[in-house]
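Reader question, answered in our methods column.
A reader sent in the components of a multi-part assembly and asked whether the whole thing could be modeled at once rather than chain by chain. We filled in our standard form and ran it. Here is what they sent:
COMPLEX SIZE: two components
ENTRIES:
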Amino acid sequence: MAITKQIPDTIFAANSFCPGCGHGIVIRLIAEVLDEMDLSDRTIGVLAVGCSCLVNRTLAVDLMQSAHGRATAAAAGIKRTRPGNLVFTYQGDGDAISIGIAETLYSAQRDEKITQIIVNNGVFGMTGGQMSPTTLVGQRTATSEKGRNSEINGDPVNIMKLLSQFNTAYLARGSVHDAANILKTKQYIRTAFELQMRGEGFTCVEVISPCPTNWHMTPDQAVERIANEVLEVYPLGEFVKGEHQK
Amino acid sequence: MLMSKIELKTENCKGCGNCIRNCRFEALAFNNEVNAKGYRIVTVDRDKCVGCGMCYTVCPDYVFSIED
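And here is the structure of the entire assembly that came back:
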């Protein structure tokens, strides 16, 4: 039985990420959901700084770039003045969880009616693979050449745990390392967008994503690393009103 | 023999191999060509492809489209 699979209309050009990067899949999932919900012309995306900004070369929606880490603050302002629009941020872990941790937490604390999408690949990708808050203990990066040392650098930040203390509408962590989880992640993004359009409150989807270039791995090795190492630290699933569902 | 209408935009391909690794019908493989970006590109054996869409799902570069 054959099925129809077409590149979404909301994708207007090929992306410019590195081979095997997960960003391209996440962007396609957003575009698929926007097409299915017929929301592309009522959507405003907010970017900040990092590889995630390259979404502007691919995704055909209105986009605004904020200062580094400040995307959720800008998105909150847009949503308050344009409540009928779908407003989402598209950020990496270095942007949303390091430089922008205050904006991320306080947007959740205020239960702003926006959707935050965080692509977590465990490094600052665009600047050359430096250690980020989500780098795993023992992981070698440009600024942790002997591996992240928890005594010096602390343990990785679990943003879902931090956000789940607030009375948010919906939190979920997905992954794009295999087909089953790609399809689940799409459902998470759709749920978040639907809840936002119903005015429910803050929604956030974190997506675990491979970065073969800065992990110094082949694309095959990078997805295996996610399955064998990363998901042990960052378990997948949904959080409703702070409770982990599965 | 079921023949799917699979189309490839090989100019988008970056040779990551996600599609080849995930194709349970072994219908995809690298060939010896490179595209304008310099990446080796994937090719499809249409006799083996059943149009399941797995390649579309795992491809980060929008190479595949499939029509029923």
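What stands out: Chain A has one domain: 23-127+134-244. Chain A has a mean pLDDT of 95.
Send us your own complexes using the same form.
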